[in-house]
Amino acid sequence: MEEKNTVLTEEQQARELSEQRVIRRDKLAALRAAGQDPFEQVKYEKTALSDELNASFEEREGSEVSVAGRILARRIMGKASFATIRDGGGNIQLYFRRDDVGEEAYARFKALDIGDIIGVKGVLFRTKTGEISIHVYSYELLSKSLIPLPEKFHGLRDVDLRYRQRYLDLIMNEESRQTFKMRSKMVTALRAFMDEEGFMEVETPILQTEAGGATARPFITHHNTLDIDMYLRIATELHLKRLIIGGFEKVYEIGRIFRNEGMDATHNPEFTTIELYQAYTDVFGILELTERIVRHLAIETCGTAVVTVGETEIDLGAPFRRATMRELVAEKTGVDVYGLSDEEAREACKKLGIEEITADMSRGKCLVAAFEAFVEDTLVQPTFVLDHPVEVSPLAKRRADDPMLTQRFELFIDGHEIANAFSELNDPIDQYDRFVEQAKARAAGDEEAQMMDKDFVTAMEYGMPPTGGMGMGIDRLCMLFTGRSTIRDVVLFPTMKPIE
């Protein structure tokens, strides 16, 4: 008979789950009593994955193959039965016939459960309905599933379950499997691109004595042997710049970053970035490199430079727009915030309805507040936003013609920041002064202000070449390429509050 799923209440599901666990443990006990422990197998020789068999069917038809995977469905029909298994490549159908596998083995097959993992050997063929299948002549039970898989229609819609128990999501949801395969493909292509460009991949400390390189609140831990508090890194920037000072002219790191801040559709407390630094170039050299990276990764990951998010097509093949933050704010609000005095800028922003304006805010901070309120989420097509105020760019080099602005860009796509880059500050005196201002803000209660890093200033005093640097969010880029609307869909194990 064909096994069907029906929608059950939570109470019914819990009761059925408990009963199914008992039944499956009883089956396990019976197997062991018969000398057939399904957990004793240590190895199984496979000759192919399901996707390979489907792709090369014309060449392999009629050949003997060996595959292994998890049973997702069965149709028992007297002396013959069908089953579907899923392996690392996808799904493939199996055809069992009592006369081929033997009466005893066929009876054992009928006693298997959805979720059990089996290995099969057989001949590749196509059924009368045209489905590529394996005509099984022998099989082995490789692992017994002691908990039934989620009920199809209810379980797969349980978002919390999908994130908390990602392994179930991957078993049941082919779309999720494809998302993470695309993510892996994207990161592989990124590494290949960077290597081709002559960059050296490096690793820098995750545990740090000062949390620097970004404006963010860190996670704090304690090192027992040294008896000191330490921080999980909020950026890789300052250590990568130390390597530039040390003479490596092109370096990058793909790694995990940790920030003790809010969680929403685009923020998870731990996330993945690439940071890269190149000596003897500036923000515009990095801008051109960034555009090439994004376009290349889109083509390598999606097969096209035009990606679709919802109903919107985003063209990553066309030249990315370049505009200053000042221009974009004036374009959206009709107000040239940066062209005003500090007091005038505050009043103008209040009239625009920005509630976060305080009495001590400079025109630069007002400009940023207006940008975040009116511009940021409107930048759907790729846009480089240039010339950030120095107040929010403590590690960027100032513009020579306007020292209150910096040589910096942020890349926005689909309303989200994807990358952030500078002509890196290499004046140790200016850097020290900016750290001092950040330390004052921190002492005044700003937990996201940067800490003083005296060793980094010392390193800069030995001489740091002109350098361009960029950080890019891997998770957000993956969201863009896969059309996902939340970061939790592209992080295998997102941060979740424990169930009490």
CATH superfamily of the largest domain: Bira Bifunctional Protein, Domain 2
Question: What Rg do the Cα atoms give?
Answer: 29 Å
**Helix/strand/pairing class, anyone?**
alpha+beta
The number of distinct β-strands equals 20
Low-confidence stretches: 1-6
- Please give the count of helices: 17
Q: Helical residue percent?
A: 25-40%
**Any idea what the CATH architecture of the largest domain is?**
2-Layer Sandwich
CATH class of the largest domain: Alpha Beta
Overall pLDDT:
93
Main sheet: strands, sense, barrel: 8 strands, mixed
Q: What would you call the shape?
A: elongated
Condensed summary:
This protein is of the alpha+beta class and 500 residues long. It has helices at residues 10-33, 50-55, 57-60, 98-101, 103-111, 152-155, 159-164, 166-172, 174-196, 237-245, 283-302, 325-333, 342-351, 363-374, 428-443, 454-461, 474-482, and strands at 64-77, 80-87, 90-97, 117-126, 132-143, 200-201, 207-208, 220-223, 228-232, 250-258, 270-279, 306-309, 312-315, 321-324, 383-386, 398-399, 402-406, 408-413, 416-423, 467-473. The protein is elongated and about 90 Å long.
